[in-house]
Amino acid sequence: MQYPEPISKLIEGFMRLPGIGPKTAARLAFYVLDMKEEDVFDFGKALVNAKRELTHCSICQHITDTDPCRICEDQTRDRSVICVVQDSKDVIAMEKMQEFRGQYHVLHGAISPVDGIGPEDIHIPDLIKRLQDETVQELIVATNPNIEGEATAMYISRLVKPTGIKVSRIAHGLPVGGDLEYADEVTLSKAIEGRQEL
Amino acid sequence: MQYPEPISKLIEGFMRLPGIGPKTAARLAFYVLDMKEEDVFDFGKALVNAKRELTHCSICQHITDTDPCRICEDQTRDRSVICVVQDSKDVIAMEKMQEFRGQYHVLHGAISPVDGIGPEDIHIPDLIKRLQDETVQELIVATNPNIEGEATAMYISRLVKPTGIKVSRIAHGLPVGGDLEYADEVTLSKAIEGRQEL
């Protein structure tokens, strides 16, 4: 005997999610069976609704339930600065900071020749199009500090600099609250390189 | 700005599951947005269906989509032996072994005075009722090898033994493939205690 069909379907569903293997999936599925019926229905509805109602903003490609998204629509935000990020989650992280008042552009990926991802596969052409109406004066490239993110930043910088728009890259260095002792060499050398006068 | 509402609802849904905190929930939610629409719908349906279609078997309390469950209905199985387990997952584990041909009784818990769980809160009264028609000759108590499981086993044994039904407990000892060096003292002492002649 295996699991009854409804439960094995649920286990399969959980197993499609990242980082969830057969054991965790079974544990979660059995947990769901003990949950309140109402909560399970809400969760099921939330899944379907999230997929159905969310799209990418036609301007900045950020995930949104309105188009254009609330950030692109917000008239109080500075339209002269665009922060380029790899992922919608990065926008959320930036917004939590509550300091950046410009706009965003979400690439949904980074250039990675190894994986066959070129500039046309992420939203770089859309970004270039956004720069044509001359309102944008600065591009802050906040792609991830790894090989793909750096390559993407370099690519964008080379493409955009000739147009006269300022292109900057977020600083690399020691995380606040971190410990110098435990920092890796590359981070440390970046921290020294980017030192600022006090 | 926070997450758009459909996604924050989905994150909340994931956070209700055990072992999933806000960061993992957000990661899973964003993953869902990138999944195929069809897969997401199937998953949502599986959630609701599992909750709606599964009940506990009225005989053995195992999770099932038919009542009585397939094991209780199976005429080829030995009705003289009942294996008592704490959880439906334990039935699945036993069935994977493909050796035990008796029936089961799922307690859905174990006696735990600390948590206020007594014999009436788990399915012990149902078990006693099952023993009354004299078909059952042996009870194999396969509750977990921890304090609650042992207490439950002792309780059941004391209750059932006077009726003349044989009560046995699954063996404790070194797991197959394990290493004596890494075994804890209690397991090792149980392994010595339960030694068998070769």
How does the SSE layout of this entry go?
The structure is a homodimer of 198-residue chains.
Chain A: H1 5-15, H2 22-34, H3 37-53, E1 55-56, E2 63-64, H4 70-73, E3 81-85, H5 88-97, E4 103-106, H6 124-130, E5 138-141, H7 147-160, E6 166-169, H8 185-193
Helix pairs in contact in A: 1-2
Keywords (chains A, B): DNA damage, DNA recombination, DNA repair, Metal-binding, Zinc, Zinc-finger
Family (chains A, B): Belongs to the RecR family.
Pfam families (chains A, B): RecR_C, RecR_HhH, RecR_ZnF, Toprim_4
* CATH architectural arrangement of the largest domain in chain A: 3-Layer(aba) Sandwich
What portion of residues of chain A is helical? Answer: 40-55%
Distance between the termini of chain A: 71 Å
Strand count, sense and barrel status of the largest sheet of chain A are:
4 strands, parallel
Largest interface, Cβ cutoff 8 Å? A-B, 55 and 54 residues
- At the first level of CATH, what is the class of the largest domain in chain A? Alpha Beta
**Shape designation of chain A:** globular
Which structural class do you get from the secondary structure elements of chain A? alpha/beta
**Poorly predicted sequence stretches spanning 5 or more consecutive residues of chain A:** none
Widest beta sheet: strand line-up of chain A:
4-3-5-6
In DSSP terms (H or I, runs of 4 or more residues), the helix count of chain A works out at 8
What oligomeric arrangement do these chains adopt? Answer: homodimer
The CATH topology annotation of the largest domain in chain A reads as Dna Topoisomerase Vi A Subunit, Chain: A, domain 2
Pfam families (chains A, B): RecR_C (PF21175), RecR_HhH (PF21176), RecR_ZnF (PF02132), Toprim_4 (PF13662)
Family (chains A, B): Belongs to the RecR family.
Function (chains A, B): May play a role in DNA repair. It seems to be involved in an RecBC-independent recombinational process of DNA repair. It may act with RecF and RecO.
GO molecular function (chains A, B): DNA binding; zinc ion binding
